[in-house]
């Protein structure tokens, strides 16, 4: 039995090409099918899919845990490239078939590696947590728990004194995580409890735990609510279910409610409450992550207690930026980019023809980029970006095509580098020794020599010089250089590398100060070390200068270069001090910072707040974020904060008043590349507290005005709506700008997590809406739109996401199996329907014994779409059960599987293993050693059944021929009585409609409906029939299908009754036997209905030929009598009961 645990591969609907543009270049090699995770039973067969498409010949190999799989009689490749294992082994070490499998496809263009697929053998371990004995008082809550590891996940049930407990009742709740909760415990709940864990591999029983129940004390005193089992922090994979438990006690019983700590609303569509307060989130998504709080509140009071837990949503990797295929000349440079998102953060690995790429002097990997310098012919290959985390992996591929050339020049010679300044180095070289006259240009390459994965820079210059000054270098840095010569047909090899360092320089600017006071007579001065770009060398010293605002005398202190703070003491209280700092390298001192002011606190015995710990960060080029917290030594209350800010050399603005609970604030609308001074103080009812001062500089902005030709703005207000399972409608707004040129748009569409950027779908339109069709069902897509006008293109709009509707299942669940695991319990298991892109929300299991199946009485079980097994319990011994399964989703129900048979042995003492009775894929057979109905057996059974039916028909025919039949027909307008030769039979006042059948001399069968208020026509056979004779043939052999003869009746359509209640027919036919033989069930409820229709059209056949039939009417005693006369004496006489004429 196999369980696929990942989604099936999606059909490709995108252009096949190596570039990200929608061109006609075809793929030289790609996968049609890739392997997926699978769980199988030991000794079962398994197929791992792998199909590659491309230019032949294609060689497919398989890797297990990175090592080539060796073929054998048990493990071998199929013709389509898939891997077949006839009997899965679970031995220890390398002999086990468990592990990670990948297939490697290769042709003349290169090799590609498939995604990883984990093969797991079904197993179930020992219990990690066993239920423990519990002692509770009557009316309180009892809780047991057990935990076990199993593959696939097991179903956990509980037993009380060896009897299975229901999963959910008014007082009992069983959580899928293995927790049993019993609310409002009663004395009858005392006993032994144990949990049962079952999956396809085995079944395990825990040890028994005893529940002891003591009488509750009288009278019961009020108790505050107390949470005895609160939610726990959990990590849940995407689309799985999360269970947060919460049980509380108290008197009166507390009410449990749930909320999110971030005040967001809980998703009511995916969330439900199980039992008395447990929260279950199904089909979990990233937005469901966060802290959830369970609150237990005493009814009618404000007494409550809270427990919280965090849900971390784990997501497999998905690519947000893909590598693009490139064509580069020899000795050129290729850059591939790959970015992925997921939880936890995916790790990026680069592959070349299926092998891992390692960094060297020519190939660099950094920030998810792959850079190949000085390309050589061997670099022509297929490259794959693999993003992987513990939830899975995703790959994207791109090809590097190397263009070869003849008569290339030799490499430049005698490279020399001389330092010019702290930011410039002069590079000089000699022309190539061969073909130097064909050189048209040189490219100078340089990068930092220290560190790993440094960015390489390139400058192209003409062929009229062999000297170049690189002047954008950082001071006090070591660099490496090389030069490449170019000719029209290609490039030379790279020259030898040369190393050189730049000189130190004075610091570009001074550090930014942060000032606070601990007392009225001191200032704590601190600063951050300068970054390398600003220090331009090693800082050797700092010079701190300070003075009061009313004095001109400046005090200076020189500090070593490794210091980042200094404490000034013995200052004047309630005085404004001005401070500034300068930094120095071995070259000299840099510029001093501007004066920063700070007022020392007043001398007072009053307790005011200490200075907060302030931190400033630039949010962007026009905004600053201030964050703070109270000093740990602060021991007084705080009523609020006052926050000041002003640009350097500008006057101070009025403060911003903030509440005491606030600890962050954002300043917006600032100017780029400006220095700002920020001051913060806390205050209380005594007065203002000590202040904290700090300066910060905003970074520079990249302005659109700085560009030569600004691009048009992107479309906005992109709106998406799913139309069907294969189409999505898009609408967007045109940006606000004026132009006389025509505007058109490109729509980009791809599934989220697409493995190759060259498969992205691009659609062109001149309208502001588009219906994207031919999409895959149940797939999440991302859309982006860009605008084109006058040969200019806008940036892509923000990405919007939309999912197509799923298709209703068109296939039943596959591989349905039924196994008897105990005397009265069976396990039915199945696999999802074998069709891609069909989501299953729940499965329906129907099962019934043979007798119940004949009566059409099925028992129904439903399981969530993530569960592929179910237990059938309380089966009766000696019975044959029929089982079938269907899959459903929100779009509809799928068909049922073939009906499986399961025999429950009447006596297990004979030595037969009850587990040997399980269904097969054939609807009437059994698999592997169970009884088979071969062709000879079926022939014998068929002949026997036919002979028996013939005998029954002959006997019935003889009985009918020897008897006298009495027939009834209700017509519109009858009296309240039905009359036959024996007198009144019953009242005709019923409102319930019935069907019954009758015939004339056994010639033709007619069905009719009757209702009260209609006349009843009776006719009589020429043969007489005693009341003691048996009922008619119609009553013996009537079946539901016989009613179809009256399907044209008006009333038959109104009721929808297709004759399923055969006992009604039998009772009506028994009327001909007289009152003595009338069954007791013939009561007012089964009589002639008050609303019957007129005679059906089949009634004209009652007496054979009715051509001469005439009706005569006479009025007698206020009742209309109809007599039927016929030209033939063989016609049957009719008696009519009609209502009183008006």
TrEMBL record:
Belongs to the immunoglobulin superfamily. DCC family. The chain crosses the membrane at residues 941-961. Residues 1050-1066 have a biased composition (Basic and acidic residues). Residues 411-505, 507-603, 608-707, 714-807, 812-907 form the Fibronectin type-III domain. It holds the Pfam family Ig_3. Gene3D superfamilies: Immunoglobulins. GO terms for biological process: cell-cell adhesion; negative regulation of neurogenesis. Residues 1068-1086 have a biased composition (Polar residues). Keywords: Developmental protein, Disulfide bond, Glycoprotein, Immunoglobulin domain, Membrane, Repeat, Signal, Transmembrane, Transmembrane helix. May play a role in anteroposterior axis elongation. It comes from Gasterosteus aculeatus aculeatus. It is a single-pass membrane protein. Residues 22-120, 125-212, 225-312, 317-396 form the Ig-like domain. This is Protogenin. It comes from the Eukaryota. Residues 1039-1105 are annotated as: Disordered. GO terms for cellular component: membrane. It is found in: Membrane. Coiled coil: none annotated.
